[in-house]
Amino acid sequence: MSTTPKTYYLIDGSGYIFRAFHALPMMMRKSDGLPVNAVYGFTNMLIRLLADLDADHLAVIYDASERGFRNEIYPAYKAQRPPAPEELVPQFPLIRATSEAFNLPGIEVDGFEADDIIATYARMAREEGSRVVIVSSDKDMMQLVGDGVTMLDPIKNKPIDAAEVMEKFGVMPDRVVDVQSLAGDSVDNVPGVPGIGIKTAAQLITEYGDLDSLLARAGEIKQPKRRESLIEFAEQARISRQLVRLRTDAPVPVGLEGLVARPPNRQKLIGFLEEMEFRTTLARVEASFDKLGDTGGGEPDLSAPGKPEAIAQAYELVQDSAALQRWADAAVQAGVLAIDTETNSLDAEAAVLCGISLATAPGRACYIPLAHVGGDGDGLALGGDAPAQIAMDEVRRILGPVLVDPSVLKVGHNLKYDAHVLGRPHVGLPITPWDDTMLISYVLDGGAHGHGMDELSELHLQHRTIPYSAVCGTGKTAITFDKVPLDKALAYAAEDADITLRLHMLLKPRLVAERMATVYETIERPLVGVIADMEMAGIKVDRTTLSRLSGEFAQRMAALEAEIHVLALGAFNVGSPKQLGEVLFERLGLPGGKKSSKTGAYSTDSSVLELLAAQGHDIATKILEWRQLAKLKGTYTDALQAQINEQSQRVHTSFSLAATNTGRLSSNEPNLQNIPIRTEEGRKIRYAFVAEPGNRLISVDYSQIELRLVAQIADVSLLKQAFLDGTDIHAMTASQVFGVPLAEMTPDVRRKAKAINFGIIYGISGFGLAAQLGIPQGEAAAFIRAYLDRLPELKVWMDETKRIARERGWVETLFGRKCHMPGIKDPNPARRAFAERQAINAPIQGTAADIIKRAMARLPGALAAEGLQARMLLQVHDELLFEAPEAEARRTAEVAQRVMQGAAVLDVPLIAEAGIGLSWAEAH
């Protein structure tokens, strides 16, 4: 007679304590001031597990002490770890009391880590033929996976099996110890072998079988540095193996029979929750017991969803110095301060600062009106008289020191705008240090959803914020914020700061848990001040040049219009898509006309016209040229004149930091990143961007960075060698694909190879390449097949990237940025194919964005260190534009090139090319 094998759930209690502590607000305290955030997180984790797992054998495993047998082997083991945070120390015994309250076995053994105890119980359970689920995401326990042992990430509720281990370490679980022995672990101070990381370690172990075989044959390693390190640090690798290998012989205090899960006792559990003051959790548990009609024992239903702990709002209007001083003191005491500004315009250059809102704890926020001009809100601002407000000098005196106090972290949402407004000379409130919840969300979930505060509040806090229209109105009756009554201004502005702080408490801990802290700390956060400075600097634009170009474009458009009318056999409005469609597909009878089901009009977008032009229809070519000129005139030569700031006589674009799913910046108001430079007319517009007298513009541009990244990321040996040799990459590709010797290369063949090279980056199809080159689709598809046959690594990488995108829902850049692909599983084939092309492009374009951002963060310091006065003005994808005194232009270019080329270490050289001129066109 067979019986169902038992399953043992072994919970890594110690590992979860720290995750719960960092994931929840430190302000979560009992009425007596005792911090309980980790206890609260641990309690609710147990509730979820007990509801979801239906486990009959379960135990919570804890670390007993900091030091153990590993310190005897290697005294420096974990030596650099900082002591536990003060707020966490008193929660350790409470967390152990939590497992007792739930009637769960809590196990710890002196001298052994929780990992060793779990490994021991796992071994015992497997020996009796039972299954084991380790509730943890700790990488050190991945060596135990396999043969009936799996892991479960309690935060993500995600199982971890051999496939996840392989993805993490590059080897199967039985070789994880070997890989860790080589790579070491900086967190636990496991030394490993210098210069060998996880990826290299996995390659070595895969090739040589195991650590001992590798060390015995280290002399065979071809790479000199790697060979020397393995020989010199062989004993260190063996010591590391003793540190990372988990013991399976810990002297556990109870056998497997002691790990039977028992239902919690009502009186004990409810008493514990009352003592911890977890009101929502208590109500949920009591309701579950009441359903059972049980007064003493019984097993409650803990699976019913509970609402988040309610946060009471206490918002204050601050209208005098004494009240502001209290808030400043509270910020210093809390060590964190959420801040938001209210202005009368979205243009940070022109906006008037109306007020500042602050938050020091969830639900605890204030609003400081500074420039309100009257209203009728509950007697706070009556008639047309200005309400009581604090003078800016007093705000600077009281709040200014807090905003630059290094012990107080300032938190904002889209802080670039607030820093811009507060940092202006007449305001004089610079901010440092800071965090930005918009950027934290962007790093965590780029491409998955928007990152506006209102959207994040609903998504993460289930709280709908007051809309701006509710306080300022809409349309012709809308008012600016300085005219909003103070009662309404308080509710709206204080909520913004409050929600920002609550989002920070929720999102910031995820950076470490999801291994995204480096992307945020080294790429995104340093850029806030850099971009704000660029926006404030702006760039000088010559009105005369713009006006002259507008006239030229208008004349050329008129001439083209006349030519188009002749070809169309009659006059019509060239700017009307409806009339154009009727002319092309009815009057002239051109092929390919398709009517929209919504409007009933023919489609005449650029793809339709480009196809007609490729077929030799001259009218389509001239219409495309007319449209290009119309766009240049309307968007740039006319519009830019109106966007010149009257005070600075410069144009100040705004860069969006969280608008794309690849990490690229985007420019708007005006958009200076989309000025076309492939046409002569487009290039002319850059002549209007000029240096101030006595200065020069310096353009520094990465050369073919995305193709270099294709070679790197896809590990394409042919492309790598070409870049190392300095070969013309397009000619080399043409030679390989089309079999044409380099000496016989023609411009047309090279052009085809160039189109494929760059098209591959964007996942180009045979149809797309055919339209671009003006050749039959079958011929274009044959070109792509020949290309991928000559570069097989690229095809492997593309297929693998699409597989990963479908499996995870996101792809990664070289620096770890996640680019989410929401449409990757769309049932619509067209949308799914588009997402697959995005998945191929995102790691390349995203890595290029990461690299130039890394350079931008380093450049201000590098220029200052050289004593240079240069200012960075613009970033246009792979190009940076600077302005510098004429005498410093060459040195500025050299420093910029050096920093940009050193922003990443690749297998192929990064090349940054520089140009200097009186205008952007001359410099580029």
Automatic annotation (TrEMBL):
Pfam families per the UniProt record, alphabetical: 5_3_exonuc (PF01367), 5_3_exonuc_N (PF02739), DNA_pol_A (PF00476), DNA_pol_A_exo1 (PF01612)
Catalyzed reaction equations: DNA(n) + a 2'-deoxyribonucleoside 5'-triphosphate = DNA(n+1) + diphosphate
EC code(s) of this entry: 2.7.7.7
Domain DNA-directed DNA polymerase family A palm, residue spans: 682-888
Location of the 5'-3' exonuclease domain: 7-262
Entry superkingdom: Bacteria
Keyword hit for DNA-binding: yes
Name of the protein: DNA polymerase I
Organism: Inquilinus ginsengisoli
Lineage: Bacteria, Pseudomonadati, Pseudomonadota, Alphaproteobacteria, Rhodospirillales
